Amino acid sequence: SHLIPIALTKRDKSILEKEDFDAWFEMRGFVDDEEDLFHKLYKWVPPKITPEDITEEEFQEMLKSKEGMLKLEQFRTIKGNPIGGYEKLVDNPFEEWKKSERVKYEKYYQNCISGNNQSGRKLRPGAKPDEIFPIDVWREEKRIHSYEPIIPSNRPPGYAKKKREEIPRSAKQILPIGIFIATILAVVAWWGVDLIVLATATGGLAIGLGLALQETMQNYFAYIFIRKDKIFVEGERVKLDTGYNGYVHKITPRVTYVRDALNESMAIIPTRQLVNAQIVNYTQGVKMVPAIVEVGVSYLNDPKQVSAILVKVGKRAMKEVVDAKGRHLIRQRRCPYLDKNKQSCGCDKDIHVDINQPVVRFNQFNDSSLDFSLWVYVRDYGAQFKTKTDMRIIMYEEFKRYDIRIPWPIRTVYQGDEKREQEEIDRLKDERKKVIDEFGVGDIGRGSGEDE
Fold it and tell me: Cis link prior to 407 (omega < 30° from 0)?
């Protein structure tokens, strides 16, 4: 009864380890790898023919230098596909990678017990509550946090145990109990007890318990389905069918807590209701979320010039809007870091649709302004807020530079000054025309007309 679950658990761990290796290969190495492990195990082989989006002269020139080869290795086509391929430099890269991960864990463990950690004290192995991640939990934490390095003592004591307690019991964990019960029934039958009579005697009790625990069992099985199918997990942003919008704070076998995005309230919902409810998950599987900034400009400004300047704003934002770790928030076909011979931050990964951004729309003639909107696509729901803030700041800078005027929220009565204001705007007309030549006019005058 114990050997079978152990074998199944070992098999599951092997599958997860292989998935981690595949992620490592896709990322061309983890951040905490030492001495560029990936290129010690694999060698990039350039394509035999010139890739699309590169001229023959550029391709041949880049093949002549180490920097050029690195740029080609990191290059992505207009559809986001890499070029070339990799050949192994060692017989079994998977085993070499596993050795490297074990060395990382040993370093983490030594930092914990030596005091070289965030708490500044020596952590004790086997302490209650747990102070050091076991290797399986350590791997799971890296997996959850996109394989970022685990900092010793950056979690409170008992965190690892709490994480394990929140995981629902799987079939292989319950298997020993099932085998034990089957063995007891076999012994009872061997003693000559009629199992049909026994089942009849206990049937009424089972029905009574089933009715009494109906809602409890519904909640528990709903909890298992949510956990196993990963309908949503803690930290993901969801919208309930009631309209409540927030982050999943905690999932338990009885209730689920959803925290409002502004920390104003906490919704507590019986877990069984979430299985049958219509839920919008803004995090899971959504790699592109629109960030839209609307703006109104003066009727005295040329719409084509305004559109070109908004395109420039969008292109600046694509390069300049980053998170605290320097990763671009806006999704794009090619990471700007590749042009600097740096590793891609991931903003050009997992794009399965053809996007052309930034997108500019001339929305309407308003009472006192020409209304435009600037669209870009960001990596997740939460990234849109910082992106829109930064785009507004860039927009203000560019509008001020090219004298694009935003109408004040007051009624303006012209008494012979409109001509003077037009002359002031026309002083930078040539500069604005140069922006049109360089950046175009966005989607004005072209496109399918379909909604984004």
Answer: no
- Domain segments of the chain as ranges: 3-165, 194-284, 289-439
DSSP string, 61-118: HHTTSHHHHHHHHH-B-TTS-B-SEEEESSS-HHHHHHHHHHHHHHHHHHHHHHT-ST
Q: Class of the 194-284 domain?
A: mainly beta
pLDDT in tens for each of the 452 residues of the chain?
A: 455 555 555 666 788 888 889 988 888 888 888 888 998 999 989 988 888 778 888 888 888 888 888 888 877 776 667 788 899 999 999 999 999 999 999 998 888 888 887 777 888 777 666 778 888 888 888 887 778 888 876 666 555 555 555 554 544 555 566 666 777 767 766 777 666 666 676 676 667 766 766 777 788 888 888 887 778 888 788 888 888 888 888 888 888 888 887 667 888 888 888 888 888 887 776 567 889 999 999 999 999 999 999 999 999 999 999 988 888 999 888 888 877 767 778 787 766 566 778 999 999 998 889 999 999 999 888 889 999 999 999 999 999 999 999 987 655 555 556 777 788 888 888 888 888 888 887 666 444 434 44
Strand pairing class (370-378; 359-365) = antiparallel
* CATH architecture of the region 289-439: 2-Layer Sandwich (3.30)
